Amino acid sequence: DAKTTQPTSMDCAEGRAANLPCNHSTISGNEYVYWYRQIHSQGPQYIIHGLKNNETNEMASLIITEDRKSSTLILPHATLRDTAVYYCIVRTRGQGGKLIFGQGTELSVKP
Amino acid sequence: GAVVSQHPSRVICKSGTSVKIECRSLDFQATTMFWYRQFPKKSLMLMATSNEGSKATYEQGVEKDKFLINHASLTLSTLTVTSAHPEDSSFYICSARDLAGQETQYFGPGTRLLVL
Description:
heterodimer; A: about 110 residues; mainly beta; five-stranded mixed sheet; globular; B: mainly beta; seven-stranded mixed sheet; four-stranded antiparallel sheet; 11 strands; about 0% helix
């Protein structure tokens, strides 16, 4: 599975949009981009995933560049409860695919 | 999203004893489950992948005789830490993949193990 690069940490003001970038320049054609977050001392929470089209759900939006070498997770109106470590992971579908976690981005939402 | 539970949520044991951690998918069937461990201020590290009815596949460097994994049904996997030592103290997290949906992988709340 390809590796990803994320900033170590980011701050965001409460109520503003949080834009979390991720580079995955070695992604291959059959790999999806997944985003998870982990709030302190809890298991990771699934946020969203996509292949090449932009995706949106009740939690966030995922913007994937046309060349698929990078993506951005957008939390449209960040709240204090969105403070967490956010992980961007690329994974193939099917039985062989595994979620391998990098270091993620520690997002701090401040009042 | 789908729900994965773990039991116990935290356990303290004496060095040399064995500890069993259960992972259940509550509202979906999971043919594949995963076990991770996480040390303080570190990322999750995949330990093994288990498929229902077959032997687990361990990641490099993970001792299969120390971390016994059983995946006897489509909703239950267990991890047994045998002859636990203080260095096995960690946060153990299981994950289950929902093959009926879009193969999204859901995580349990984790089990904190402290070996004295």
